[in-house]
């Protein structure tokens, strides 16, 4: 088929399909309607709607780690789009290739500014914000540039030390028609851009495709010191998931966690893989696991097991993405490690996950951990939804329904 006149964003979707993109994670918005329409018209690329813009980037992060291809996040450039920066920074730190597409309402000139109270809403300048945490950030100013910008974005995201790239696309330019087809190569470098290809540094790709930062500390986590929650539980989990005989041919297990003590000795079992966090923020694990699980299903490994191990302080940050996992039938087991030394007197995590359409149970007796984990593994398979196992060495006196809580304690999150 020769060159033909098609919407510019349809040419971008053709590029995405050529690059092996199987799914885009994002927040629906009017400025992205041309992209959604083109994805439906071209076919072959699914879409998973998230609850939080940051979650979209972490999901694409997990998908990229498993496939070895650039993950895609698509978000409308509204008030919440600035939340992308945290996810982009995490991907840059962990050397994960991502292409983030932000949809803007229009590229037409603005009307003359009036009084501040009458001035129209102005979305954040994502190109400027993302310039410091991406390999390249570009705003499209010519519809003919769109196919070439997308092709270059995937190349830059992969080459050298992998990392994220952001493309800001106005909706009117995305819907504009261009001539595209065989022989229509990438457009000339243009548009407003910041950043460039990063210097090449080594990263290790496991056979499963998970990215492990070569410069990460042992265990692949960030170097910030934090107390090890429920040491007995971590040791027990290593035994539960590592108890396999040489003749065991069960499916592989992928452990998504930012805790350094999680499943020590995982490298001794070729069927057990760690998906570690180096630069990800607290709560990164749940959306990343959605991306990992989606990638495994995409490549036909539905029998593979995904396990999230997170502490009680990080879990609530992006727990709302459990609702997306329940909606799209993305099953995995979440093991939340905590203890009496760090109680949360205001949150009932079991009721929280039930509100998002999932199930769970708590563990107070160490003898119950093995049976609880086995129950969760079966429940996740049967319901095709996440299942929580909350591990506590003792119930806090100030738990929901108990005596009045004492003075509020402040905790420092992140690094």
In short:
The chain is an alpha/beta fold.
Oligomer: single chain
Radius of gyration over all CA atoms, rounded: 22 Å
- The helix-strand sequence is EHEHEHEHEHEHEHEEEEHEEHEHEHEHE
For the biggest sheet, the summary is: 7 strands, mixed
Question: Which regions contain 5 or more consecutive residues with pLDDT less than 50?
Answer: 187-227, 394-415
* Proportion in helices: 25-40%
Shape: elongated
- Order of strands, main sheet, comes to 3-2-4-5-7-6-9
DSSP, total strands: 17
List its traits.
single chain, 415 residues, alpha/beta, 7-stranded mixed beta sheet, 6-stranded parallel beta sheet, 17 strands, disordered C terminus
């Amino acid at each position: 088929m020769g060159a033909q006149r098609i919407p510019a964003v349809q040419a971008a979707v053709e590029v995405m399909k050529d690059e092996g993109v199987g799914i885009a994670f994002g927040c629906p918005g009017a400025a992205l309607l041309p992209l959604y329409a083109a994805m439906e018209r071209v076919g072959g690329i699914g879409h998973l709607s998230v609850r939080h813009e940051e979650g979209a980037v972490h999901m694409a992060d997990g998908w990229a780690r498993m496939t070895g291809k650039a993950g895609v996040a698509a978000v409308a450039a509204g008030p919440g789009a600035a939340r992308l920066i945290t996810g982009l920074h995490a991907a840059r730190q962990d050397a994960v290739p991502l292409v983030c597409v932000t949809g803007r309402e229009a590229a037409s000139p603005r009307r003359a500014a009036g009084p501040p109270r009458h001035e129209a809403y102005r979305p954040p300048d994502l190109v400027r914000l993302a310039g410091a945490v991406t390999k390249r950030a570009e705003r499209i100013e010519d519809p003919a540039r769109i196919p070439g910008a997308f092709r270059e974005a995937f190349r830059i995201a992969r080459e050298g030390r992998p990392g994220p790239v952001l493309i800001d696309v106005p909706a009117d330019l995305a819907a504009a028609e261009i001539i595209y087809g065989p022989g229509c190569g990438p457009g000339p470098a243009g548009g407003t851009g910041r950043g460039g290809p990063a210097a090449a540094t080594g990263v290790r790709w496991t056979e499963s495709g998970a990215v492990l930062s070569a410069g990460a500390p042992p265990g692949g986590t960030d170097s910030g010191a934090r107390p090890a929650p429920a040491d007995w539980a971590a040791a027990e989990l290593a035994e539960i998931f590592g108890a396999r005989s040489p003749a065991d041919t069960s499916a592989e297990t992928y452990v998504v966690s930012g805790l350094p003590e999680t499943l020590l000795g995982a490298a001794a079992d070729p069927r057990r893989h760690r998906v570690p966090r180096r630069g990800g923020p607290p709560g990164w694990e749940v959306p990343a696991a959605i991306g990992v699980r989606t990638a495994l299903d995409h490549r036909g490994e539905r029998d593979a097991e995904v396990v999230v191990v997170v502490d009680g302080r990080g879990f609530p940050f992006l727990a709302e993405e459990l609702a997306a996992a329940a909606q799209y039938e993305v099953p995995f087991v979440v093991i939340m490690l905590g203890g009496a030394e760090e109680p949360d007197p205001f949150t009932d995590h079991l009721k929280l996950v039930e509100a998002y359409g999932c199930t769970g149970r708590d563990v107070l007796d160490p003898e119950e951990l093995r049976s609880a984990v086995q129950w969760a593994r079966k429940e996740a398979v049967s319901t095709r939804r996440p299942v929580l196992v909350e591990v506590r060495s003792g119930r806090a006196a100030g738990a929901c329904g108990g005596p009045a809580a004492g003075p509020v304690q402040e905790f420092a999150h992140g690094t």
